[in-house]
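Hi V.,

Quick status before I head out on leave. The structure for the redesign project is tokenized and pasted below; the design run finished overnight.
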């Protein structure tokens, strides 16, 4: 026991003696996590016992153990901080939920031995993958129905994220998903035509052999260029899923429904989860190699 602890114990004992309260030590049974001896205050007038831990904690110059979760903004910081605090029992977990992916390093994880003692699991390093604003917007409205004008404005606002399909992509995605892959100018023309005909009723819709559709309206029956509106079944977007990350090319299905003569639009990203999962798995391998710690896919136990 250091000098500060001895002084504190003596001060408590002196106060206890003056107040008809005595300090005693209890030797608890051999239970994992308990010290060999526990000091308590015993009121000699009514026999009530009280812990002295809170009295000691008031005098602590340092916490009794490391607790808390550090939030880092980059994978490099995650690796460096985990490596700085790691013990032989530390572990890293990867949550591959594609909408909220993350890495969590549990520094005070349980003993690696199967019959080893449990640890607190309260000292952690957490890295929530920073999803880009562009990605979050497309995911937010994925599969969500939009009115005709609303959808047209959405497309115009995201026009910079539309990509021209490569020849190989056009062939590949047509075989996999069916239908023709549209070029950005076609999608833009579609959006302009939808705005022109926002207040008119759909009177005819035809599915062509190419997989695209043609729509005509009750008034004029033409878009601003004097042509029927052609609706492609697919288009490509190019954007980085992660902030300051590399851009990926994602096929998007274009769908619509006619309800009481009005168009309701929605789009469907094709397998957006795979791009996130692949990046999380690559990052997990990097963290494993750099820290030399065991890694797991999932979430650690909730700390008590």
């Amino acid at each position: 026991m250091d000098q500060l602890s001895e002084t504190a114990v003596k001060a408590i004992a002196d106060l206890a003696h003056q107040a008809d309260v005595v300090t005693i030590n209890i030797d608890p049974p051999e239970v994992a996590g308990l010290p060999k001896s526990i000091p308590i205050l015993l009121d000699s007038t009514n026999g009530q016992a009280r812990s002295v831990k809170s009295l000691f904690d008031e005098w602590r110059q340092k916490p009794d153990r490391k607790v808390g979760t550090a939030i880092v903004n980059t994978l490099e910081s995650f690796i460096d901080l985990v490596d700085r605090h790691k013990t032989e029992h530390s572990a890293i977990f990867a949550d591959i939920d594609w909408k909220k992916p993350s890495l969590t390093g549990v520094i005070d994880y349980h003993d690696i031995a199967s019959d080893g003692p449990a640890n607190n699991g309260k000292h952690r390093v957490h890295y929530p993958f920073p999803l880009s604003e562009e990605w979050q917007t497309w995911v937010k409205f994925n599969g969500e129905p939009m009115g005709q004008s609303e959808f047209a404005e959405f497309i115009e606002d995201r026009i910079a994220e539309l990509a021209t399909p490569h020849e190989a992509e056009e062939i590949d995605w047509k075989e996999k998903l069916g239908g023709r892959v549209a070029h950005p100018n076609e999608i833009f023309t579609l959006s302009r035509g939808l705005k022109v005909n926002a207040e008119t009723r759909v009177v005819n819709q035809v599915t062509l052999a190419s997989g695209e559709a043609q729509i005509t309206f009750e008034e004029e029956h033409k878009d601003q260029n004097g042509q029927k509106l052609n609706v492609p079944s697919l288009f490509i977007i190019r954007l980085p899923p992660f902030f300051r990350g590399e851009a990926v090319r994602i096929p998007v299905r274009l769908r619509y429904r006619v309800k009481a003569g009005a168009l309701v639009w929605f789009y469907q990203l094709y397998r957006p989860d795979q791009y996130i999962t692949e990046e999380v798995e690559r990052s997990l391998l990097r963290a494993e190699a750099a820290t030399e710690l065991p890694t797991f896919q999932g979430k650690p136990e909730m700390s008590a």
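Above is the designed sequence. The two ends are 29 Å apart (CA to CA).

G. will cover questions while I'm gone.

Best,
W.
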